Amino acid sequence: MNDVVGVRIVGVFSVKVCQLRIVLLLLVVLSASSSFSLTFPEARHLSLRAGFGPEPALTNKLLSLPKGKAVTYLLQRRERDFDVPACAQETLIPYSKIKNFDELELKAFRQAQNKCKLVLKQTYADHLLSKESNDVLLHRMELFWHNHFTSSLAKVPYAKLLYDQHNIIHQHAMGNFRVLLHSILRDPAMLLYLDNNNNNKAKPNENLARELLELFALGVGNYSEQDVKEVARALTGLSIDGESFAPRFYPERHDYNKKSILGDVGYFGSDAVLEILLSKPDVAVYITRALWSGFVSKEDEKEIARLSSIFYQDWNISRLLRGILMSKAFWDDAGRMTKFPLELVVGGGRLLPGMVPSKSVPGLVKRMEQDIFDPPNVKGWSGGSDWINSRTYIERVKFSEQLTRGLQPKRYQAELTYICGRGASELMASPTLIEPASSKIVDVSDIGHNCIDDLARVLEHPAWQLK
Amino acid sequence: MATKMNRRELIQFMALAGVCGVASPLNAQSSSAVQNKRMVVLLELNGGNDSLNSYIPLEQEARYRSLRPALHLTNSERVGLDEQIALHSALSPLVASWKDKDLALVHGLGYENPNLSHFRGIEIWDTASDSDSYKNHGWLSSLAKKHSESEIAAIVLGRNSGPVAGGSGTVLQANLLRGFLGKSKQLTHLDAIKANAAYSHVLSVQNNLVSSVTGLLPALRKNNVVKTVFPETQLGRQLAEIAQFINTGIHVPVFKVALSGFDTHRNQKPSHERLLAQLSSALMTFREEMIRAGHWDDVLVMTYSEFGRRPKMNGSGGTDHGTAASHIVMGGRVKGGHIGQHPTLPEKDNANMAFTTDFRSLYQSILDQWFERPDIRLADNVVGQLPLFRGL
């Protein structure tokens, strides 16, 4: 693509024009450089950070677009969410019934629950891997918000509830943060996970209140312990119905007295608490910083400040994402972040469709210390370099080894042509970290074991772990 | 440009941190009362070995030929073992072991509801799970816990640490450990790492616990420890390195190597012959060295694969994925001979063989009898009573 720029400038110069016009033209050309389509390294970088890697169809699409339009393309939503697995509805048995279970029934019930939770994970993995499921940035944002507004299948009794929470996140992941925040606070899985069903005026439970302030909205240092207590009081009574599992407010449990929260005084309930939070620019900064860190390895305080003040205006997540993905810091950051387990596995599985059975995925990523819908605690996964330790590194490399095991050239003709046409090392975030193939695969119609061997070499290289 | 790792010499050195932190390397004699000093060498035949053309069931000769008109082994391509089985001629070096009665062939190894995908198939064999359940640990991974707590639980030369992964012992994996030292020094000086914290972290983990391996290196570098000349194949070099470890008294209960290329969908005969020749040559050299050095009674070698192959040949001179297969178990204490029944070749043309021995009963037999660890149970309905051993 850069060659094209050179040719155009030369073409212009060959015509006799006065110097001023030349200078102006140069300026126009240079400032319009963003209207040239993405180069392959740029498309790759964007696909690694905003998707699951440089899979053929996505890459070809991105290569046809300039930066702004490529980001627009990724921000579009085209597809439905995955359907809830059948077992999830079957296992949604009301508390009143469970109370009367004998030991055997209880055991059977728990087994059915656990089985269904696994099915939920497998179904989600299948959705992420599917060739029909290409809203990759949306998927990444769902995973991001799952790790932000954490709940876990280990604690939440029913798979259906986690599915419903996922659905909320799916709807608002690239929408409006205000709506997302309000929806999440009402969400039954969240209320159960953070014990708000036990938060009543006689005995307040601070769990949800604390995490709302510390992790979900404000961040440590921007509130006091007293604020936590007051917010907990404001959230009393917000619970779920034991029969339908729908969110339900119990007035008799609510503390209707005055509260003092973050400097405001009033008779606040849960909605009011959220509006108080959303009035604080600190919340915009906190969320902006969190999102920024999901896409860029180093925090740029100036950019974060600039983007957060825009975000504060109307809480538009999509616009914030665009701001991050169009920033210079993002584009200069290739190869400096670590792929998280799902990204590594789904990336491999989408590059070679059919090689990774979706049923294997939950166990795979769990061994890499990312259990789907099951973060270790409410803080979520710390991420970054923490993903890689001695134990997980073995698993990650083993997965990469398995990816090319028994890979049949005929079946993957198109993919291998794409991969080896450029050279497998070009799939890496930083191709300079690996030696290029020892022999160039010149005849792409003869794609065979040289290509697969080279691909294996790349996938098993430590730099494959980066994005 | 920064120094890059040479492709051929690419070493992947990984270590699983033991529960007690950095492992202290070389307590050849552990103080654990439970430990016995037996070892197993897993020999993975990566891709799914065609056992039907490796170990031919002579009693089903007619059906065998009709299923494989262009692929069956002719008389000149096989060598006799007994009335039941003939070997692929490339496996003829094994005959000596058969005659000495330290080679067992276990037939019909497989499981219910077989999975014919490489990815899932090898997972099942490595974790000894049911076909539809998912386990997170290799079948030998908990052997490590009691056997060698702060020692090396397993050495994996080559790909796929599946059978030992997920435990709490220290697992070393590399193509060849011998080449490691040179590489590790190089890696710490790469310019690239200095500029990229994420990459330097990955590399540091990869080089992690170097100190735990440093103790191994003197043993690796000793000369004249292995006296038999091994073939110059990767498998040969890897088995030679394992022999070196064993001869210098490094007690590691599990070693693993792998031979790749068995997924012979096309033009099977030449590549299968080549692979089986490599297998038998390296394996018999290893046996010879172990006998010479006096360790053969403590060593058990077994082959395994994600599946066998289709009895009926395909249209490309090869075979597609199958199910049950025969595998080798060899060692100084092995009771040589046939174990289990060779499956009946199917009547329906494109069908697969039904397993006759659950592979987990083989594993459980090794755990119960060889390692004396009946506490490690692989599955509820599986017992470990195959008559594999003598004089234990």
Q: Layout of SSEs?
A:
The complex is a heterodimer of chains A (467) and B (392).
Chain A: H1 2-13, H2 19-31, H3 40-50, H4 56-63, H5 67-75, H6 86-90, H7 95-98, H8 103-129, H9 136-148, H10 159-172, H11 177-186, H12 188-193, H13 207-217, H14 225-234, E1 238-240, E2 247-249, E3 259-261, E4 264-266, H15 270-278, H16 281-295, H17 301-314, H18 317-325, H19 328-331, H20 341-351, H21 361-367, H22 390-403, H23 413-422, H24 449-459
Antiparallel strand pairs in A: 1-2, 3-4
Chain B: E1 14-15, E2 39-46, E3 55-57, H1 61-67, E4 78-80, E5 85-88, H2 95-99, E6 103-110, H3 118-127, H4 143-147, E7 152-157, E8 170-174, H5 180-187, H6 191-195, H7 197-206, H8 210-214, H9 216-221, H10 234-247, E9 254-260, H11 268-293, E10 299-304, E11 325-331, E12 337-339, E13 357-358, H12 359-370
Parallel strand pairs in B: 2-9, 2-10, 6-12, 6-13, 7-8, 7-9
Antiparallel strand pairs in B: 1-8, 3-5, 4-5, 6-11, 10-11
Q: If you had to describe this structure to a student in words, what would you say it looks like?
A:
The complex is a heterodimer of chains A (467) and B (392). Chain A is mainly α. Helix content of chain A is 55%, strand content 3%. In chain A, strand 3 and strand 4 form a beta hairpin. The relative contact order of chain A is 0.09. Chain B is built from twelve helices and 13 strands. In chain B, the strands form two sheets. In chain B, strands 1, 2, 6, 7, 8, 9, 10, 11, 12 and 13 form a ten-stranded mixed beta sheet that branches. A three-stranded antiparallel beta sheet of chain B has the order 3-5-4, with no helix packed on it. The longest helix of chain B is centred in the last third of the chain and has 26 residues, at 268-293. The N and C termini of chain B lie far apart (58 Å). At the A-B interface, helix 21 and helix 22 of A face strand 1, helix 3 and helix 7 of B.
